[in-house]
Structure formats: structure tokens, C-alpha cells
Amino acid sequence: MAKLQTLCVLAALCFLSTLVVAFSHSEHKPTFIVQGRVYCDTCRAGFETPATIYIPGANVRIECRNFTTGVVSYTGTGVTDESGTYKLKVVDDREDEICDVALVNSPIEECTEIKEGRDRARIVLTHNNGMSSNVRYANSLGFLRDVPFPICGQLLLQYAMGDEE
Fold first, then answer.
1. What residues contact residue 6 under an 8 Å CB cut-off, 6+ apart?
2. Could you list the pLDDT tens digit for every one of the 165 residues in the chain?
3. Exposed / middle / buried, residue 99 (Cβ in 10 Å: 0-12, 13-18, 19+)
């Protein structure tokens, strides 16, 4: 009888230690926060200016693909807050993957055109790169306004370079 009790105790201990190991591995997966902003290029300048408006309620998508095969391994979506900022939570290290955040749509009717080159931002989601923070900042993503604001001509003159008249 004592042998049976000892065997039951040992089996229970093995089972519990397996649960502890499994639980501890699932708890230690790194979590990254991908943060960026979405804006309306009100001057159609191709970059942010003092007239830029940040868009609340814009939709973005994150997609990670295997570097070698190109197979999509992770996707997620998010919406910008009142300041035009999104924060996407991504679980697990993506060392062997290429991850991009991309524009999906804008809630502002006159600012829905997606600007090529400002429609996506590449991000690195691994701790094997010397970065200690879990927050990854993506470049701003921009939509183009249908018609530039009237002030834009004067505003863009400050960016003029050279002797062009």
C-alpha cells in the first residue's frame, strides 16, 4: 500500500512539474508594442508639415512574413486613438520574419488616398538586436487629402531649396 501511495505522489509531482514548465514557457513569450501615427497630408507634400492633421479612427494592419519562404505567419489590426496614434500588441519573437504595418482606411472622406511610400512601415520584432525596450516605433503612415489646404503654397515655400524662383 505504501508503494502505491509513493507512486501516486511521484506521478502527481511529475504532472505538476510538467504543468509548471508549460505555464512558465507560455508566460515568457516576449510581447512587443508597435506604435505609430497616421496622418492626413493636407498639402499633398509627401511628408508631414505644420499643416498635417493626425487621423483618429484610421485602421492599420500588421503582417509578418517568414524571411525565407514569404509565408504569412502573423497578422493583426488596430485603430488609431484621438491623437492619430495606434498601438498594436504582438506576442512572440519574430527574428526570422519581416514585419510591416500598413494603412487600411481613413474615416476622413476628403483624405482617403493612400500615398505610395507612406503606406507602410517596416519594423523589427526581436530582442536579438540590442534593443531592450518592448516598444517599437514605426514611421508615420500618411493619406493624401483630395485638395490641398489654401495655405499650403506659402507653407511649402519654407522647404524650397536652391536658387529656384
1. none
2. 566 565 454 455 455 455 444 444 445 677 899 999 999 999 999 999 999 999 999 999 999 999 899 999 999 999 999 999 999 999 888 888 999 999 999 999 999 999 888 999 999 888 776 677 889 999 999 999 999 999 999 999 988 855 554
3. buried
Q: 158: which residues sit within 8 A by CB, 6+ positions away?
A: none
* Contact call for residues 165 and 58 (beta carbons, < 8 A): no
E strands of the chain, at which residues?
31-41, 53-54, 59-66, 72-79, 85-91, 97-105, 113-114, 120-123, 135-137, 141-144
Distance CA 134, CA 137 (A): 10
| DSSP per-residue letters across 91-129 | ES--TTEEEEEEEEE-S-TT--EE-TTSSEEEE---STT
